[in-house]
Amino acid sequence: MTWNGHFPVRIPRSCRLREQQAPEILIRDVEQLVLAHETGGSAEADLVQAADSLSFLDTNVDLFLGFARSGRFPVSAVRWKFENTYDRIKVPRARLIARPLVDDAVARLAALEPTVAPPAALSGDGQSIMSFPLDEG
């Protein structure tokens, strides 16, 4: 088991590549890309990480605005998630694509902020945003 930023990730030993009798070197390379999708590191991993961030900004903004609206997470934590998702992108072209997405997400959150009641420091189940699986994209 390894950690994906905020939560454990398991890569099954009997993954589909093995079932298809892929070469072991390919399986190891794919596993390394999966494990590095949060942080990047190599040119290939940086592309996967950038795609992960773009996917989040394209598909999960409404989910996280809902978290802020419901009080599950404080507005400040959701803003941090949006900005951190952008800040960790290392691929210049992906940053250009992500900039308007993050700007829109932060603007929508700012518009929502006056209507949100101050949340508890933790969600109802005692889970902080830092322990929540943030990558749903």
Overall geometric form = elongated
Helices, by number, come to: 6
The stretches of 5 or more residues where confidence is low (pLDDT under 50) are: 1-8, 121-137
The portion of residues assigned to helices is 55-70%
SSE run: EEHHHHHH
Distance between the termini: 21 Å
Task: Give the beta-strand count.
Answer: 2
C-alpha-based Rg, rounded: 17 Å
Question: What is the residue-averaged pLDDT?
Answer: 79
Strand content: under 5%
Describe the structure.
With 137 residues, the protein is mainly α. It has a domain at 40-131. Helix content is 56%, strand content 4%.
List keywords for this structure.
elongated, single chain, 137 residues, mainly alpha, disordered C terminus, two-stranded antiparallel ribbon, 56% helix
Question: Can you lay out the helices and strands and say which pair or pack?
Answer:
Blueprint: E1 2-4, E2 7-9, H1 16-19, H2 24-35, H3 43-59, H4 61-70, H5 75-87, H6 92-112
Antiparallel strand pairs: 1-2
Question: Quick recap of the structure?
Answer:
The chain is mainly alpha-helical. It has 6 helices and 2 strands, in the order ββαααααα.
